[in-house]
Design brief:
The protein is of the alpha/beta class. Helices cover 42% and strands 17% of the residues. Bound molecules: NADP nicotinamide-adenine-dinucleotide phosphate (NAP).
Length: 230
């Protein structure tokens, strides 16, 4: 079987970096989407030091021109993306009145539209080739069943990401799957030092969805490989 290639957005640190590491350990070729070259180079070097097959591409998911340029760059390098992990995310604080207008704009742009633009750029080829996995790294705070229990801009943008997941999944056919994953509360710059899970433990749940077999689910929301409540 040909080696699959994965693109992990926000791959320079946190859950994204660990997802990249675990995917590369499973033998995938992994491209880190990064918005800062220096941070990306340091992450790539760390993974290369572990003899993993990784590269990077400049990618600010909040900027549609950057998404288009990254896809062009990948095509020029003959890299066809089989697995897309929409991991890049931001966490603006504040309730629905206290948060600044920009908090909502930024959250929607990165957390929801960023994943949508990147998926819209890569899903058509996956459908044409008959294989693809898209994983949207969502959150327990996106869950209506759990009361959207977090900061307002973050919750509504991640709930929108879950809706994006379902709309993309409705287009999936062949061996193409689009799913959302709640990684849990994770010890990263976003999650803070008191969080429950290591980035590696959280990344396991992302990798599970990124490497589902053909009989695996499409259009679901999962936490560590088990169904999560929307
Ligand atoms: P993190 O350590 O803060 O990492 C966030 C990553 O997203 C960084 O690589 C960051 O790049 C990147 N990013 C932010 N805006 C971007 C943009 N416009 N374009 C490209 N990359 C961008 O956070 P994390 O905990 O690993 O979070 C990863 C994902 O898990 C996020 O979607 C987050 O919402 C989700 N999540 C996390 C937790 C948790 O407890 N940590 C819980 C639930 C869900 P820079 O280094 O350039 O800033």
């Amino acid at each position: 079987m040909a080696t699959h290639t994965a693109l992990v957005t926000g791959g320079n640190r946190g859950i994204g970096l660990e997802t990249a590491r675990l995917l590369a350990r499973r033998g995938l070729r992994v491209v880190l989407g990064v918005r800062e070259a220096a941070a990306g180079e340091a992450a790539v070097q760390a993974l290369k030091d572990e003899k993993l097959r990784v590269g990077m591409v400049a990618l600010d998911v909040a900027d549609k021109a950057s998404v288009e340029a990254a896809v062009l760059q990948l095509a020029r390098r003959n890299l066809r993306i089989d697995v897309l992990v929409n991991n890049a995310g931001i966490y603006p604080e504040g309730d629905a009145l206290a948060a600044a207008d920009e908090a909502f704009e930024d959250a929607f742009r990165v957390n929801a539209l960023g994943a949508l633009w990147t998926s819209r750029a890569l899903l058509p080829e996956m459908l044409a080739r008959g294989y693809g996995r898209i994983v949207n790294v969502s959150s327990g705070y996106a869950s209506f069943a759990r009361g959207l229990a977090g900061p307002a801009a973050y919750c509504v943008s991640k709930a929108a990401l879950n809706a994006v997941t379902l709309k993309l999944a409705q287009l999936a056919h062949g061996d193409v799957k689009v799913n959302a994953v709640d990684p849990g509360w994770v010890r990263t710059r976003m999650g803070g030092p008191a969080a429950d899970l290591t980035p590696e433990a959280a990344a396991e749940g992302v990798v599970w969805a990124a490497t589902l077999p053909a009989k695996g689910p499409n259009g679901g929301f999962f936490h560590q490989g088990k169904p999560a409540q929307w």
